[in-house]
């Protein structure tokens, strides 16, 4: 299993030398966004989600909760995050409490199938489906939890051919839990789950540039704590991911879809 990190918040506080509630938003952005692109990637998804006050979004595979909190802060909506890694959910809850957003952002330790609601206005997945074998069933489960016409935004990693990327990777240590589709396969799986396509964009060049800028910033002024420092073999995993993007082995695609039915 890849996601085995524990005691995440105590580790952050030890490395940062202060309570998580005292961390700046810039410091948190380097910790709680478990995907390439950081908060800027979330910003790229927001227009397609069309969220606002009085609405509720579903973050599937919510990790440490950075995107969910960012969406709530930016749009004023409520957010529910679900994740199957208990230690990540516990950290997300504590980070959200420290950010003063516990009244609007909720995290549940449950698979998507354990979520009974079917009234979400929008949903998102960011670097999640690589660990999911049956992608059509996964996205059909999301469609079943959206109101008619609800929006789905994805920011996901795909393969370009049969050449495997170097291991370990942020989502897989040994490859046994990595199920990478091509971009076309992923798009067709989402549409086969009942979604209608609104937008599909290759964000590989943008993501590669983000990695290059991140590398320069870390080399110039490394922060006391960053996401790679929290992960098992984190620096190697992040470097391998960046190399695979640069070499063309992997791509990152961003998409917006609408759920079946009339709003």
From TrEMBL:
Cross-referenced Gene3D superfamilies: Vaccinia Virus protein VP39
Record-linked CDD domains: AdoMet_MTases
GO biological process: methylation
GO MF term set: methyltransferase activity
Chain ranges of the Methyltransferase domain: 58-150
Alphabetical UniProt keywords: Methyltransferase, Transferase
SUPFAM superfamilies membership: S-adenosyl-L-methionine-dependent methyltransferases (SSF53335)
One Pfam family linked to the record: Methyltransf_25
Superkingdom, natural source: Bacteria
Protein name in the entry: Methyltransferase domain-containing protein
């Amino acid at each position: 299993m890849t996601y085995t990190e524990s005691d995440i918040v105590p580790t952050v506080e030890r490395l940062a030398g202060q309570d998580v509630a005292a961390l700046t938003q810039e410091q948190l952005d380097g910790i709680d966004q478990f995907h390439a692109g950081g908060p800027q990637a979330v910003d790229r998804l927001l227009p397609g989600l069309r969220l606002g006050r009085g609405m509720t979004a579903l973050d599937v595979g919510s990790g440490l909760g950075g995107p969910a909190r960012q969406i709530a802060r930016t749009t004023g909506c409520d957010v529910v995050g679900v994740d199957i890694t208990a230690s990540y959910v516990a950290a997300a809850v504590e980070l959200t409490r420290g950010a003063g957003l516990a009244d609007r952002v909720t995290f549940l330790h449950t698979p998507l199938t354990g979520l009974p609601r079917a009234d979400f206005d929008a949903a998102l997945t960011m670097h999640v489906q690589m660990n999911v074998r049956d992608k059509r069933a996964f996205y059909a489960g999301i469609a079943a939890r959206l109101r008619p016409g609800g929006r789905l935004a994805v920011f996901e990693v795909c393969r370009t051919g049969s050449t495997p990327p170097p291991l370990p990777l942020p989502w897989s240590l040994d490859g046994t839990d990595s199920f990478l589709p091509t971009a076309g396969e992923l798009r067709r799986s989402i549409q086969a789950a009942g979604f209608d396509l609104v937008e599909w964009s290759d964000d590989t060049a943008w993501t590669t540039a983000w990695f290059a800028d991140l590398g320069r910033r870390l080399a110039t002024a490394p922060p006391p704590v960053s996401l790679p420092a929290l992960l098992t073999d984190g620096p190697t995993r992040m470097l391998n991911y960046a190399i695979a993007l640069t070499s063309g082995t992997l791509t990152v695609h961003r998409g917006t879809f609408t759920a079946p039915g009339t709003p």
